[in-house]
């Protein structure tokens, strides 16, 4: 079978572009394609352009040797499950699909949600000359809102970072150390004192910055870190504004033609409803409709190995899915560090695993006799995958995410944590550096085996090659005097 491309990368966000860049930088390999459902690159930050629109693309067939899923985990919004949504006569859209044609000035807006997206949107649309007439935010659960670190860097600091050798790298290592230290707060028992310190400090910050009437709701009664922390972007302060109302005791019961009706019967007029109700974590991977060996789908595979919850070896590989790799896959997110760092580790890991495949593809195309590299199929062994999945889940049981709160990190059906990585990030990096090849099965596909068998060097091939080298060397030698 003739390939259209060696490597097909799904998604032109941070992971997809990062993989492509490193593929060229490390291996000089440019035979790849990136497919993107939007009309430009950007991934999560293209979709989440609050104050986008994702467009469907045409359907076509591509044949490839390696498939990389870089669709991410924050690209498919949760649907609106409030009754009556179809009857609403105004604008209704998710923060990940923001309607930039909508002018919110002097409009009445309802915001559904209380996570990172909602707490960023509300302060912006409620301030200045272009502010909304009224924004009513409906919140179901309180989040730990942390004071946002926002240091001002002096000109001397900037000069030092630019000109002093290793200064920027040292500063980065220091920041990384602080982030890694923070993981000590996540173990349920040993991290209790650190979480108590966080709760006392951030609780006081919440009370100091927000109106007293909201204190009973805004200070959560859950463990710090059990849900994703929200960095305060002037959200608490904006609750003092006359055009902002936070509703937490009277949830929306139904959407009507020109607003929403709450459980108590209160009517709230709305020109637009903004949904900040989160994402279908890891569902974008299922939307690819990918099938592995013997026609097994990703969903069927997860039913077999993890009771239907998302899972993967190193968050990257699925047994029975040869030459398939997932960026930002199950259990790769971090509650204390950067997901960019984890993605970079996954890229490095994947590049090391596919190196034999790339060598085999190059050997297949070479006109010279090739006798060495034949592996063009790599897949993780089922037993290795199962051990890795079980180990991750066992470690997660002793961390704060399992302390009893509801969280998007938990699979709603099984209760498994399908999102978070249960350890320091530098340990993930170490695993990406050293590939345990015993966990993988390497083989040669029939097309490559047939192609390479035709190029096995016999006596005549070596004779032709030797004569060619001799003639080339002779003429090169004859030209040397002329160049003097």
Automatic annotation (TrEMBL):
Transmembrane segments: none annotated. It comes from the Eukaryota. The keyword RNA-binding does not apply. Keywords: FAD, Flavoprotein, Oxidoreductase. GO terms for molecular function: flavin adenine dinucleotide binding; N,N-dimethylaniline monooxygenase activity; NADP binding. Pfam families: FMO-like (PF00743), NAD_binding_8 (PF13450). Belongs to the FAD-binding monooxygenase family. This is Uncharacterized protein. It comes from Xylaria multiplex.
């Amino acid at each position: 079978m003739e390939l259209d491309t060696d490597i097909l990368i799904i998604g032109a966000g941070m992971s997809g572009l990062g993989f492509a860049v490193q593929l060229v930088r490390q291996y000089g390999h440019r035979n790849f394609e990136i497919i993107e459902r939007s009309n430009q690159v950007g991934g999560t930050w293209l979709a989440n352009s609050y104050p986008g629109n994702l467009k469907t693309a045409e359907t076509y067939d591509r044949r490839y040797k390696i498939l990389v899923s870089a669709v991410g985990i924050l690209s498919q919004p949760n649907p609106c499950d409030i009754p009556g949504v179809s009857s609403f006569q105004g604008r209704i859209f998710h923060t990940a699909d923001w309607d930039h044609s909508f002018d919110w000035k002097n409009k009445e807006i309802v915001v559904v949600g209380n996570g990172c997206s909602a707490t960023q949107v509300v302060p912006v649309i409620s301030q200045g000359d272009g502010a909304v007439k009224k924004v009513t935010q409906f919140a179901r659960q309180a989040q730990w809102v942390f004071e946002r670190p926002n240091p001002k860097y002096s000109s001397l600091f900037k000069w030092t970072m630019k000109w002093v050798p290793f200064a920027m790298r040292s500063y980065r290592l220091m920041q990384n150390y602080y982030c890694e230290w923070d993981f000590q707060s996540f173990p349920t028992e040993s991290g209790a004192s650190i979480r108590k310190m966080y709760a006392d400090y951030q609780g006081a910050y919440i009370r100091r910055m927000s109106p007293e009437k909201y204190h009973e709701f805004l200070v959560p009664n859950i463990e710090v870190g059990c849900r994703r922390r929200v960095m305060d972007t002037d959200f608490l302060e904006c609750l003092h504004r006359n055009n902002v109302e936070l509703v937490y005791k009277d949830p929306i019961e139904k959407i009507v033609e020109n607003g929403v009706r709450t459980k108590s019967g209160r009517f709230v007029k709305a020109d637009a409803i903004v949904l900040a109700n989160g994402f279908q974590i890891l569902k974008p991977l299922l939307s690819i409709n990918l099938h592995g060996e013997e026609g097994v789908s990703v969903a069927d595979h997860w039913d077999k190995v993890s009771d239907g919850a998302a899972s993967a070896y190193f968050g990257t590989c699925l047994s029975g899915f040869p030459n398939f790799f997932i960026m930002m896959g199950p259990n790769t997110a971090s509650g204390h560090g950067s997901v960019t760092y984890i993605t970079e580790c996954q890229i490095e890991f994947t590049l090391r695993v596919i190196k034999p495949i790339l060598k085999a593809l190059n050997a297949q195309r070479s006109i010279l006799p090739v006798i060495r590299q034949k592996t063009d199929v790599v897949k993780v062994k089922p037993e290795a995958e199962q051990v890795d999945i079980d180990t991750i889940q066992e470690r997660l049981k002793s961390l704060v995410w399992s302390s009893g709160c509801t969280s998007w990190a938990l699979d709603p059906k099984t209760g498994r944590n399908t999102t978070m990585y249960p350890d320091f990030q530098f340990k993930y990096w170490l695993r990406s550096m050293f590939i345990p090849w015993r966990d993988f099965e390497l083989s040669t596909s029939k097309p490559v085996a047939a192609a390479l068998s035709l190029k096995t060097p016999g006596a005549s091939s070596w004779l032709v090659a030797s004569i060619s080298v001799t003639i080339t060397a002779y003429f090169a030698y004859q030209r040397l005097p002329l160049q003097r």
